[in-house]
Inverse folding.
């Protein structure tokens, strides 16, 4: 442990300056991927990195790698990073913090004249949000081999413009191949986007895993009939079945605490008329858990329970799992570096699981990876009201710095 600390004010000022590009009246930010505003944000980031003595590489997905040389430049770098694009009504911190924290580390090391054994890189991943070009995290996904390059470049917005065309237009269609770039370690610092740290008064989230997800679509079909003359015992009420399944989904989530999430967020009732017994209901189920075996047990409980409920009420059921994203356990050594840094800095911390997807979830497939969370006000993000505290951001950046230094010397 050393006495180097980042400059809290400089980090904050950089976040605020970046937040002016696409800044909204409510204090948020709208900087959609590969728009003119995204180009301005990228240009500013590149300018700042060059001023900090970095060399810049841009790959074919427009991912930007700002490199600070090491004593042995042939070694793979310790990398950090996140994204600069935002949701249409996004905030100033989601993603931007993880990128500018990397820059702040470089500035701090430069001031102290500190050389690291391995090189360091700060990475800006293109189009993490997936708001203009679905899906989310597509460019870190190409980097990690989850998607091929053609798939990434051909993602289109609602006007039919592709990522490839828009990268060319804004001048960020780089020449470097995507992926095949080894990292000794990768760390992503990010606001929590949930309320746990704030509720517990903790400053640092030591992120051990990212949750796996299973998404389902279920259609129950019974029989529509008049709400008056149809006797209760002879009804086949599809909404009654759905209601029982909703309750069961909640119970499955509660039975698998502390880490399970189980949600029915969308439901369509047919014919949706007040004096007709519902004949058909379509709804979705979203299950999340960091342990694949628990997620599988939740899956089994849902399937078994749904069949029983449908049979009890005499309903036909169409049941489909439409998406499975496996859990991501982060690298034990990287997690340990973060925990050790938080302890050495005397910062309150707790282990936690990321409920959202992040670029780090894909990078974990190709490099030892972990994440650092800092609190955000009331857990709100993807919202112009997203706020984070300058002290918390500085704490997170200091943890990042110490973790990076440890891995770079190891
Ligand atoms: Zn983000």
């Amino acid at each position: 442990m050393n006495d180097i600390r980042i400059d809290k004010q400089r980090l904050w000022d950089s976040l605020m300056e970046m937040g002016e590009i696409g800044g909204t009246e409510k204090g948020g930010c709208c900087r959609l991927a590969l728009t003119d505003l995204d180009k301005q944000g990228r240009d500013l980031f590149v300018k700042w990195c060059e001023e900090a003595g970095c060399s810049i590489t841009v790959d074919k997905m427009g991912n930007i790698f700002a490199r600070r040389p090491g004593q042995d430049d042939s070694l793979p770098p310790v990398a950090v990073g996140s994204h600069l694009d935002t949701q249409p009504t996004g905030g100033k911190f989601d993603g931007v913090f993880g990128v500018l924290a990397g820059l702040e580390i470089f500035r701090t090391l430069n001031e102290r004249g500190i050389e690291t054994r391995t090189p360091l890189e700060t990475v800006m991943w293109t189009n993490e949000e997936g708001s203009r070009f679905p899906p989310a995290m597509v460019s870190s996904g190409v980097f990690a081999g989850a998607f091929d390059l053609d798939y990434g470049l051909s993602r289109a917005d609602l006007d039919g413009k592709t990522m490839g065309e828009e990268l060319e237009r804004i001048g960020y269609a780089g020449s470097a191949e995507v992926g095949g770039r080894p990292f000794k370690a990768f760390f992503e610092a990010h606001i929590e986007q949930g309320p746990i740290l704030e509720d517990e008064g903790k400053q640092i989230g030591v992120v051990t895993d990212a949750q796996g997800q299973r998404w389902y679509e279920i259609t129950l079909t019974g029989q529509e009939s008049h709400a008056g003359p149809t006797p209760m015992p002879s009804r086949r009420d599809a909404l009654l079945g759905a209601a029982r399944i909703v309750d069961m989904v909640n119970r499955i989530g509660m039975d698998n605490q502390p880490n399970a999430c189980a949600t029915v967020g969308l439901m369509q009732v047919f014919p949706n008329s007040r004096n007709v017994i519902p004949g058909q209901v379509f709804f979705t189920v979203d299950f999340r858990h960091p342990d694949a075996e628990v997620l599988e047990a939740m899956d089994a409980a849902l399937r078994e329970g749904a069949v029983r409920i449908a049979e009890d009420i005499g309903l036909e059921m169409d049941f489909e799992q439409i998406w499975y994203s496996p859990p991501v356990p982060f690298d034990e050594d990287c997690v340990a570096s973060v925990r050790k840094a938080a302890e050495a800095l005397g910062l309150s911390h707790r282990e936690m699981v990321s409920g959202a997807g992040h670029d780090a979830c894909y990078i974990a497939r190709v490099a030892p990876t972990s994440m650092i969370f800092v609190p955000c006000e009331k857990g709100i993000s993807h919202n112009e009201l997203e706020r984070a505290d300058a002290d918390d951001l500085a704490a997170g950046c200091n943890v990042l710095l110490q973790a990076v230094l440890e891995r770079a010397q190891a």
Summary: The chain has twelve helices and 16 strands. Residues 83, 94-95, 128, 190, 358 surround zinc ion (CB under 6 Å). Residues 292-313 form the longest helix (22 residues). Residues 143 and 304 are 39 Å apart (CA to CA).
